[in-house]
Amino acid sequence: RSTMSALVVAAIVGTAGFVVTSPPHLMASRCAHISGPVRVRMSESAPPPGPKTYEEAEKLGLSLFQAGDFESALRAFEDAKKLPGAGYDVIRVQPGMGAQGVTSQSPNPRGLQESRFASPAQLAIAEYNIACCLLKMGSKEDALDKLEAFVAGTDNPGRQFERMIKDPDLAEIRQEILAMQEKMQASEGWNPFAKMKKLLDVPFVEWK
After folding, report:
1. pTM of whole model > 0.70?
2. Strands 87-92 and 112-117
3. What's the CA gap between 31 and 69, in Å, rounded?
4. DSSP at 99
5. pLDDT tens digit string along 36-80?
6. How far apart are CA 77 and CA 91, in angstroms?
7. Contacts of 55 (CB under 8 A, 6+ apart)
8. What b/e sequence results for 136-170 when a residue is b if at least 16 CB atoms lie within 10 Å of its CB, and e otherwise?
9. Beta-sheet strands, E only, within the chain
10. In the chain, pLDDT over 70 holds for what percent of residues?
11. Bridge-partner residues for 115, per DSSP?
């Protein structure tokens, strides 16, 4: 039987990323000095892109909340407040110029540019969801502060209190919510309809 000597390739990937080839008679001596399994670093796939809009971040946050990952859900709701949402502003720019005064390749004949951001209603909803996360994480006082901010940012506080009192995720602080409602109703200047005027004052086009 004919025999042929062959090279045994030992692929030891280090920080430099090179491959070492050794003849058979050297492999045994080298392997004797290796303790434990040899780990080969595999290429890692890029992480999935994060949410690009308020709606995407809110959907992610709700999914994480239902899965019991309250800390990650809180971060998603915080991110939602900074992402484009239902709110928008239209500003006037010089025709053919970008927002920073740089000539664009596609001129804007109307000289208008739209900017998207989370609306006041979406911001209030995010505060509510963040409050639920904080409560699940054991931060009761912080949760109450967020709920108070949520109520202050809505147009119908009375209706929101009704929902909060019935929400099973807030059952732990139901008595505190009732006390908050009584305090706000007794406070000077309490008016459930005071914020309805804001609906008539929203500028649709802002000239700058």
Report:
1. no
2. antiparallel
3. 44
4. T
5. 554 545 455 666 789 999 999 999 999 999 999 999 999 999 999
6. 28
7. 85
8. beeeeeebbebbbebbebbbebeebbeebeeeeeb
9. 8-10, 20-22, 87-92, 112-117
10. 59
11. 89
